[in-house]
Structure formats: structure tokens, C-alpha cells
């Protein structure tokens, strides 16, 4: 737009400071939203990686259980040099149910926890195993 006043013509072809501030505000809100989504996806990826590794390791530990379930006792350990900082903990207990006493005497509840040192995450799996010989 051209304004003519006197001898000089003034043209206005640029942005005002207010327009620039609004544009920067909109861009910063968009970048903040994208950054928060990125952080959420990284956190979800770490949780999924932990869960996948913990499930794999718990399957390895379950496969190493002895066949006589009545001999399983509270125990803890690690997974060796192949999986550093990964630990496991087994907590067996008897199943008590007043309505199904005969069946409950033949079951053992085994809680297996797999975790990583220094991490607050714990993967826990509870199994009910049949005892072949009732003590």
C-alpha cells in the first residue's frame, strides 16, 4: 500500500512486531507439543523394551525349574554374564482355599519377579503349579 503525503511516498510491505510475536508463539506451542510427544514415545519404547526382555528372561527361568514343584524354595539370583544387571526372585507359597482343600493341597503358587538393578520396574508372573506328591 502506498501513502502519498507531501513529497515522499511511504510503502508498508513488512510485518509488524505483533504479527511476528504471534507467529513465534504459535510455532513454540507446536514445537512444545511435538517435544512432549517425543518424550512420551521414548518412555513407552523403554517400557516396552524392558517388558520384552523381562518376559524373555522369565521364560528362561521358568524353563530351568526342577520338575518336582514341592522342592521349589524361595530363591534369588542373576542371569549370568549374558544379561548383566538383570536379577530374578522366586517366592513360592501354598494355596489355601477352604472350599477346595483337596485341590489346594496339590497346588503351589510361585511368584517370579524379574527386574533390572537400578530400575524401579519389576516384571512379576504368578504361576500355579501342580504337585505330584503331596507332602
Description:
The chain has one domain (2-130). It contains two helices and six strands. The chain has helices at residues 17-63, 101-105; strands at residues 2-5, 8-11, 75-78, 86-94, 107-116, 122-130. The longest helix has 47 residues, at 17-63. It is elongated. The N and C termini lie far apart (98 Å).
User: Beta-strand level of the residues, as a percent range?
Assistant: 25-35%
User: Order of strands across the biggest sheet?
Assistant: 3-4-5-6
User: pLDDT under 50 segments (min length 5)?
Assistant: none
**H/E topology pattern:** EEHEEHEE
Helix content percent band:
25-40%
Average predicted confidence as pLDDT: 85
> For the report, how would you describe the main beta sheet?
4 strands, antiparallel
Number of self-contained structural domains = 1
> Ends: how far apart?
98 Å
What attributes characterize this protein structure?
alpha+beta; 30% strand; 2 helices; two-stranded antiparallel sheet; 135 residues; single chain; 4-stranded antiparallel beta sheet
Q: SSE layout and pairings?
A:
Elements lengths: L1 E4 L2 E4 L5 H47 L11 E4 L7 E9 L6 H5 L1 E10 L5 E9 L5
Antiparallel strand pairs: 1-2, 3-4, 4-5, 5-6
Nutshell version of this structure?
The protein is of the alpha+beta class and 135 residues long. It has helices spanning 17-63, 101-105; strands spanning 2-5, 8-11, 75-78, 86-94, 107-116, 122-130. A hairpin with a 2-residue loop joins strand 1 and strand 2.
